[in-house]
Amino acid sequence: MSDIIIPYDQKPEMIFFDFGGTLFVDGRCCPADGFAALLQAAENPDVTDKDALAALWDEYLEDTEPVNGEGGAHLEIPLSAVLTYAEMMTGLRVPLPMSEQEELFDRYNSTREAIAGVPAFLDVLKKYGIRAAVISNNMMSGAGLALAVKRWLPSSAMEFCLTSADLLFMKPDRHLFLSAAKYAGVDPARCWYCGDGFNPDVRGALGAGMLPVFFDPDAEEPLSKQRYDGSDYLLVNRWDALREYLAEFF
Asked: pTM score, two decimals?
């Protein structure tokens, strides 16, 4: 690892993380199961059923495809909007704040587990005084996603979550990265961004002046320095490799 040079030999002030594919691996999304959980929390569950709600989910996303589909504007459709639509169309009343509805729906519409090495890596960040937060292309609001992170990684010290549903912009748009850095009061140049998508995460971070860490489990080496368009980025195939790298330097 001694071939890694500036700027990756300077301790980052803050590391931002993608969510799906970076911190967690999720199974196939099944909206009907998420709606079944919301029905359990509803005041009047008999007004509809999970299949009718799932059909409204499909209808909403089909109608909004020109906004977020291929060739569209690539703006995020917030989960809160879809849930509100399905509930109002059926008269369903769920007496929970929307962020809690999002987390409940998310908890049951898929399986989820933390990627190997993530808890230990986050513990090392706390040890070294490196701040952490999440920037994600996600239908959930940042408030809802923060509840999910707390549920699945209860010992993590994520300061906040910012999602594309909050701003509508989707990575690689720089607005997400710059807004998060500004909110945290950090210089983007002193931040690393860890993600598993080259276009949204590596190119997006570089466009905002952050230092990318590309997580690719299929990479041949545990950790290596790569170049893209005249800039460096780190490529890692396991989080333990990045944890060891931080321990070696800092």
From this structure: 0.93
